[in-house]
Write the structure tokens for this entry.
Amino acid sequence: MKCGGINVQTNNNKKTSMKNRTKIALTVALLAGAVSLQADVEALWQKNCASCHGKDGKGQTTMGKKAGARDYTDAAVQASFTDEEAFKATKEGVVKDGKTVMKPYGEKLTDEEIKELVAHIRSFKS
Ligand code: HEC
């Protein structure tokens, strides 16, 4: 039947456009996820770390200078610790000369968040 044929044709077109729409929706969702992850680590840094290490990672805040935070835009400073050491420092804190210069964040942040923060620190390197 002619009519049937046309109907089938229309249905096929609908199916294809639905598929494309699903693809687009998926892409948008993935992009939004990536952006929100970025925003989350930025917010975590601002909230927990920037008071000492600075928004820009240079450690040039009042608290950072007092505590002795180092400049994370300096390649030599970046090279002085591994990702594992940075992870451990954030999770367990930093003690210098018997004084806690940075408190541990293991209770406050998840391992995943700490890993993202370490990657964030690496992004300061100029
Ligand atoms: C009270 C100030 C303060 C806060 C808040 C703080 N830090 Fe630190 N952090 C320091 C000091 C001081 C050091 C030791 C610097 C040194 O090694 O001489 C340090 C060291 C580190 C190190 C080890 C590498 C290094 O510089 O020796 C990492 C990694 C680190 N901090 C990450 C973080 C992260 C991530 C946060 C937030 C979750 C944070 N810090 C919050 C003061 C702070």
Notes: Residues 2-122 form a domain with the Cytochrome Bc1 Complex; Chain D, domain 2 fold (CATH 1.10.760). The chain has one domain: 2-122. The chain has a mean pLDDT of 88. Residues 48-49, 51-53, 63, 67-70, 81, 86, 89-90, 94, 101-102, 105, 117, 121 surround heme C (CB under 6 Å).
